[in-house]
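Propose amino acids for all 134 sites.
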């Protein structure tokens, strides 16, 4: 049976470091690190604010087109990391959007592959303005 113990401290610390590395790579536009973070697979998905990336090749194409800089995150509001066992994790960030009265949300699903290490298999970034949809 697979061990799904939540939030083993050493796994949470490892995931937090990987997330911070990814966030810094976004600011620096370090495409090598950004690419290394994501699973190189046609099954990987990244929904961003202005594009959808279906598969690693599309995600990479968006990465090289994006300008460097601090991006849309002005301030972090809440960061939640959940690890299950030693090989599954989710990272969710709520943030204030730079220069706008909007809240942003970012989520990542991570898997540790035996031969590749930790990789994002699915990611999502969106904003919400507080107006209900119904």
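Proposal:
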């Amino acid at each position: 049976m697979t061990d799904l113990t939540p939030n083993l401290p050493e796994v949470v610390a490892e995931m937090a470091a990987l997330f911070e590395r990814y966030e810094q790579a976004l600011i620096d536009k370090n495409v090598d690190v950004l690419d290394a973070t994501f699973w190189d697979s046609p099954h990987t998905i990244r929904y961003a604010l202005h594009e959808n990336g279906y598969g690693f090749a599309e995600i990479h194409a968006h990465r090289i087109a994006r300008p460097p800089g601090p991006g849309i995150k002005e301030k972090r509001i809440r960061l939640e990391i959940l690890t299950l066992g030693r090989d599954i994790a989710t990272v969710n960030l709520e943030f204030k959007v730079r220069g706008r009265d909007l809240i942003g949300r970012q989520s990542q699903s991570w898997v540790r592959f035996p031969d590749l290490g930790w990789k994002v298999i699915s990611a999502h970034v969106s904003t919400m303005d507080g107006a209900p949809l119904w």
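The chain has one domain: 9-128. The chain has a mean pLDDT of 94.
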